[in-house]
Write a structure and sequence with these properties.
Two copies of one chain form a homodimer. Chain A has helices at about 10-20, 45-55, 120-130, 135-140, 175-185, 230-240, and strands at about 35-45, 65, 90-95, 95-100, 115-120, 145-150, 160-170, 195, 220-225, 245, 255-260. Chain A has six helices and eleven strands. Chain A is α+β, with helices and mostly antiparallel strands. Chain A starts with 9 loop residues before the first helix and ends in a 7-residue tail after the last strand.
Chain lengths: ~260, ~260
C-alpha cells in the first residue's frame, strides 16, 4: 500500500492514481469511512436496459451514481474526478470477451458511453467491523467467497441471469446484529439474501466458490449470504455488449461520499 | 365511493375500473394497506433521462416499477393488470400542454412508450395514522397543500426543476415520531425534506399553496414538508416531451404490493 494511504483523502488517492503514482494493488482498506464503487461502463444503446436492470435488482446492483452519456466527471459523488483515469486498473470487454487490462481508458472513451457506479460491500463490512463482528476473509487477507446461486434476478430488456452472492461466516449469536447493521445500507447490497443452508439457494459445496477464495466455516458459525457486485458485471457480460468497461477486481473508484451518508436510519 | 370499496382487493378494483364500472372520483382510501402509484408514461426517447432523473432524486421520484418500452403489464407490482385501462382517469399531454382527460389510453398507446410507476404519499400517511398522528387534510376531506420550493432537484439530461413539497401540520411533540415513521418508507417519499420555517425553502406564504387546498396550521403545530409526487410530473412537463401521459389527480394505480413490503426496517 502507498505510504500514508490510510490518511489520504479520496481526492489525494484519485490524484495519485491519475498521474500513475499509486502503487498499491488494491483499494481495499484505503480512505476508511468513504464509499468505494464498482464501475460498469456501457454504450448508450444498452444503458436504458441496464439502468432498468439495476432499478429492479437493487440488492445486487445498488446504484450510487449514473452519469449522462459522454460525461466523465461523477459530479455527485466525486466532483472534479475523471472516471477515465482515476481508477487504478480497468478491464475492457468487447462482445463479452476480456480484451485488455489497462491503467486508463482515455483511448476507449467515446461520447456515447454511460458510466454506472455501484455500491460495494466495503461500506457494510466497515459497519460490521465497527460493531465487533470480525470478518474472516479480511483477517486472513483473502478475497471473500462468491457463488453463483439459483436465485434469479429480475430480467430487464436484454439483461438477465442468476444472482451472485458473497458468503461471510458469522457466529450464531451475532447473526441478528449482522442483519440489522447491513439492513441500514441498502445502497451497498443491504440485508442478506439468505442465512444458513447453502443448498436452498443452489450452492452445492461451500468449499468450491465460483469466484474469490475459500473461507472456512468454523464451529458455531452460520454462513450468511449477501448479494454481490459481481452480479451486474456477470449479467452484462452474458448479454455480450459490443463494449463494456469495468474496474479490475479490487481496484474500485474511491468517492468523496461518506459511508454514513448511505445509511437509511 | 363504490359499494364495498374498502373490502375490495386491488385486483377487483382494477377490474371494475377496466370495464367502466368504477364510480368513485378518487382512489384515496380504497384497498387500505396496498401501495398506490403515480403514473408517468413517456416515449423511449425521453425514458433514459427520466429514469436517471428519478434515480438522482429518489425523494420526490421514488420508483415502484418501470416497464420496458411497449409493455402494458406491471409484472412486478400487479401481474395481470393493464396500465392502459386500469386507472380510473388519465391525462394526456402533448408538447407540455394538456390535450385530453380520458378513461383509457388504448388509442394513445404505442410500442415505444415506457411506463413509470412512482410511490405516492398514501402509504406513509397510512403509517402516520396507524401511529396516532392525525392528518388534518384527511379529516377535513381536502387535498394536501403543495408548494413549489427553492430546493432544486438534481438535473438529468433534459429534465430539471424545483422540488414540489406537500405540507402536513404535525403537533410539536409528534414531529420526531413522524420523521421516524416516514423514514421507514424511502420508496414513497421517505423522511421529510424540511421541518419548520417555510421561508427557508422559499415558501413565502403557507396560506397560498401552489397546488391543492389550504390546510390551516393550529397552535402548537409545526409545518412538516415532504417531497411530493407532483415534482416529476412538473419537471417532465417543463421539458415539453412530445407525448406524456399521467394519472389524473387522485386517480392512482392500485397495485398488489402491500405498504409494509416497502418498509426498509
Amino acid at each position: 500500500m502507498a505510504v500514508n494511504a490510510l490518511s489520504q483523502t479520496p481526492r489525494e488517492i484519485r490524484e495519485l492514481v491519475r498521474v500513475g503514482r499509486w502503487e498499491a494493488r488494491t483499494t481495499a482498506g484505503v480512505a476508511p469511512g468513504y464509499v468505494q464503487a464498482n464501475l460498469v461502463i456501457l454504450p448508450k444503446a444498452q444503458a436504458f436496459d441496464f439502468l432498468l436492470f439495476c432499478q429492479r435488482n437493487p440488492k445486487p446492483c445498488p446504484l450510487i451514481e449514473v452519469m449522462e452519456a459522454g460525461v466523465a466527471e461523477p459530479a455527485i459523488t466525486a466532483p472534479g474526478a475523471d472516471i477515465r483515469t482515476d481508477l487504478p486498473r480497468y478491464r475492457v470487454f468487447r462482445d463479452g470477451a476480456l480484451v485488455k487490462e489497462t491503467d486508463d481508458i482515455l483511448e476507449e472513451w467515446r461520447d456515447d458511453l454511460v458510466t454506472f457506479l455501484l455500491g460495494c460491500s466495503f461500506t457494510f463490512e466497515a459497519a460490521l467491523l465497527d460493531a465487533g463482528i470480525s470478518l474472516r476473509h479480511i483477517e486472513q487477507e483473502k478475497n471473500v467467497s462468491m457463488y453463483v446461486t439459483t436465485l434469479a434476478t429480475r430480467p430487464a430488456g436484454q439483461f438477465a441471469g442468476p444472482t451472485v452472492v458473497s458468503m461471510r461466516p458469522i457466529p450464531q449469536e451475532k447473526v441478528v446484529r449482522a442483519v440489522q447493521i447491513t439492513s441500514r445500507f441498502p445502497d451497498v447490497h443491504g440485508a442478506p439474501v439468505h442465512i444458513g443452508d447453502p443448498q436452498r439457494i443452489g450452492i452445492r459445496d461451500l468449499s468450491k466458490p465460483d469466484y474469490g477464495d475459500i473461507v472456512e466455516l468454523e464451529k458455531g458459525e452460520v454462513p450468511v449470504f449477501w448479494a454481490c457486485g459481481v452480479t451486474p458485471q456477470a449479467v452484462a457480460m452474458h448479454s455480450k455488449p459490443p463494449l463494456m468497461i469495468t474496474h479490475a477486481p479490487g481496484n474500485m473508484f474511491v468517492t468523496d461520499q461518506r459511508d454514513q451518508e448511505l445509511a437509511v436510519l
